From TrEMBL, chains A, B:
Keyword set includes Transcription regulation: yes
Native organism: Streptosporangium sandarakinum
Origin superkingdom: Bacteria
InterPro entries registered for this protein in UniProt: CoA-bd, NAD(P)-bd_dom_sf, Rex_actinobacterial-type, Rex_DNA-bd_C_dom, Tscrpt_rep_Rex, WH-like_DNA-bd_sf, WH_DNA-bd_sf
Subcellular location field: Cytoplasm
GO CC annotations on file: cytoplasm
UniProt record similarity statement: Belongs to the transcriptional regulatory Rex family.
Binding-site positions, NAD(+): G97, V98, G99, N100, L101, G102
Protein name: Redox-sensing transcriptional repressor Rex
Function statement: Modulates transcription in response to changes in cellular NADH/NAD(+) redox state.
DNA sequence: GTCCCTTTGTGAAGCGATGCACAAAGTGAA
DNA sequence: TTCACTTTGTGCATCGCTTCACAAAGGGAC
């Protein structure tokens, strides 16, 4: 059996590094398309929007894949990062909830590009069950467990209304799924060993609003409009 | 002029805390609807999916709004967090790019709920300009600057193809916008003082795939399928 | 082979966030 | 008033990530 270089920490890549690897991969793919053979940490870092020291440390966690004085071989690095991220196999993804957002996700091309294949769509509304979206038949949520098992789905995207999300999560987890991407604005409770990632548009906007408010406050010279909590309310 | 309590760090809330405030706010709104008057840090923390020490430290950055032995007044805390996040005013948001995703965002209800109002939709495709989506007329991208200024848009959501995103960002920034939520899979370069937040479905999936691969590797007892880099490729 | 130049990989310091553990502060009962 | 109990606010140790700065390693010219 062939092992990876011993100085690469066997199974210990920092979470922050993992979150940046897809960024590097995308930048490298662009360079590959433009025909670049090698790239320096400086150039790759700036294409990915990080500084070069961070990039080098990140890559050093995968192994020693660069050449001093030269840089990194673009194709080789693409292969190594892809392998580390698990993109050399392909993953069957199911989308639950085919409302506006679910439809948009199903049709989103960037999805399929790298290792991911939308393998099933589910909804509870009899009105949309049976529709064809992005070449797929929308299945009824009653068949969730059976279809997940049959098609080997390992990642589920939740695009249901908030009220349904926890219940659906429980069911897909019971069916063996351990990776969930949640678009519903609720905090999901899941057993240990299940990975959840959350995307919440409303939260992102609120964070932007906080900084935006700060910027405008600063312009107008302080919190002149601060108001007291209305006296009428009982404290 | 009324000031906030002096022990609250005047303009110094940690970024990690800001990112969690919307979570607390959502949990509090649920409690308010269920008629709860007060809540302990323990209960609120568990509703928001964090531990109670973190919650208390986060809230302490806003001021001392709890009562020892009792907990926090739900309505009062909602008010304080809303004010800190800048949700007591409402923000005009523009969505650029009315493809699948842009449409879904325009129709997304959770948007409007708290302080945000979709004030304009833009697209470059003459085919969709003039369409009515979620009660709004889709405007041509040529009118971007004029409409942004006229309607006081301060936050822009980018849902354009990747190739157009940087160019659109440059234009909205030139028009005075300093907060952007970017759904396009590109690294945007922006001047200092402009806040960008990024949402990238593909990256989220890749992170999940990494962990999923790890879990299955562990089950099958090691990286038995690891392959050498094909010899044919020049290194 | 030797020298110079470039670029990687990493030790170490710095920085911010997390979580523990407890003193301080409040409630309610007697 | 005093006492027992609850819950906040925070000092402090710890942890993980970032950044600096440089030794080590490789390439190319001569």
């Amino acid at each position: 059996m062939i092992r990876r270089p011993s100085h690469a920490r066997e199974r210990g890549i920092p979470e922050a590094t993992v979150a940046r690897l897809p960024l590097y991969l995308r930048a490298l793919n662009g360079m590959s398309e433009r025909g670049l053979a090698t790239v320096s940490s400086e150039d790759l870092a700036s294409a990915a929007g990080v500084n070069s020291a961070k990039l080098r440390k990140d890559l050093s966690h995968l192994g020693s894949y660069g050449t001093r004085g030269v840089g990194y071989d673009v194709e080789y690095l693409i292969y190594q990062i892809s392998r580390e991220l698990g993109l050399t196999q392909d993953w069957a993804v199911a989308i639950v909830g085919v409302g506006n957002l679910g439809r948009a996700l199903a049709n989103y091309g960037g999805f399929v590009s790298r290792g991911f294949r939308v393998a099933a769509l589910f909804d509870a509304d009899p009105e949309v069950v049976g529709d064809h979206i992005a070449g797929l038949n929308v299945e009824h949520i009653d068949d969730l467990e059976a279809v997940i098992r049959r098609r080997g789905v390992s990642i589920v995207v939740l695009a249901t209304p908030a009220a349904a999300a926890q219940q659906v999560a429980d069911r897909v987890i019971a069916a063996g799924v351990t990776s969930i991407l949640n678009f519903a604005p609720v905090v999901l409770t899941v057993p240990e060993g299940v990975d959840i990632r959350k995307v919440d548009l409303s939260i992102e906007l609120q964070i932007l609003a906080f900084h935006e408010q700060r910027k405008t406050d600063r312009m107008s010279g302080g919190p002149a409009m601060a108001e007291e909590w209305p006296e009428a309310v009982d404290l």
